[in-house]
C-alpha cells in the first residue's frame, strides 16, 4: 500500500530536476533577536534586516549601543526596529518582548537568543555566587525566554528558536568551567525543548574564536594565534560566519531541530595541533 503522505506531484518535479529554493523567505516575518547588540548579534540583525524581516531587538542595559545599531539599520536598509530593554531572567523583561510582539499584530516566525555574559575564572576563583550569576545570564534567562516565545509559536504557526552557545560548551578548554558549564546546559536544554515541541524547531549555534563578540579581546591579545600558526584553523571567525549560521536555522522551511552547529573553523577538532 502506498504511503498516505506521498506527494506524487512533488516527486515528479524532482525527477525533472526542478527544485524549490526559497529567496528572501524571511521578508515581512517577525523575528525576535534577544541580546543582539554585540558584535555577533549586530551582524545577525544586519543580515535579517537586509532580507526584510521585521525585527524586535533586545538588549540588557547599553541603550546607546542599541540606538546606534537601530540608526545604522534604518540608514542602510530603511528598516525600523523595536527595542526591548532588560535582563532576560526578569519576568517583566520577558513580558516586554511579548508586548512588543502584540503591537506588531503578526505571528512570531522565529527567535534568536544571543544573550550571555563572559564568566571566565580560574577554578580557585569560582564561587557559588559567580556560578549562580553565570547560570542566570547564560542559561536561565535564555531558557525562560525561549519557553515563553516557543509556547507562542507552538500555539500558532510554529517557528524556530536559535540559542547562542560557544565551542567551550562542546569541548573542554582550561579555565572555562564557570562559562562553559551553563552553555553546555543550554545545548542540552535545546534538545529537550526540541523534543517537547512539535511545531517549533530549537537549535544552537556555537561560535569559536571570532574577531567580534566575547572572544574579541582574547583573539586580539594573541591568545589564539597558535591555532593559525600551526594550521589548526586558516583564519579567525567573522561575525558574518555566525550570522549566516543563525539565519540558516531561522529558515521557515528548515528541516533540522535539536542540533548544535559549531562555527569554529575546525578549531575544536584540531586544537591538539597547537598544544605546547
Question: Any overview of this molecule?
Answer:
With 276 residues, this protein is an alpha/beta fold. The protein has a single domain, classed as Rossmann fold. Helices cover 45% and strands 14% of the residues. The chain has ten helices and seven strands. The protein has helices at 8-15, 39-51, 63-77, 91-104, 128-155, 177-196, 216-220, 225-229, 239-250, 267-270; strands at residues 30-34, 54-59, 81-85, 108-113, 159-164, 200-207, 260-263. A seven-stranded parallel β-sheet has the order 3-2-1-4-5-6-7, sandwiched between helices. Helix 2 (39-51) runs parallel beside helix 3 and helix 2 (39-51) packs across helix 9. The longest helix is centred in the middle third of the chain and has 28 residues, at 128-155. The chain is globular.
Keywords:
alpha/beta; 276 residues; Rossmann fold; globular; seven-stranded parallel sheet
What is the gist of this entry?
By secondary structure, this protein is an alpha/beta fold. It has a single domain, classed as NAD(P)-binding Rossmann-like Domain (Rossmann fold, 3-Layer(aba) Sandwich). It is 45% helix and 14% strand.
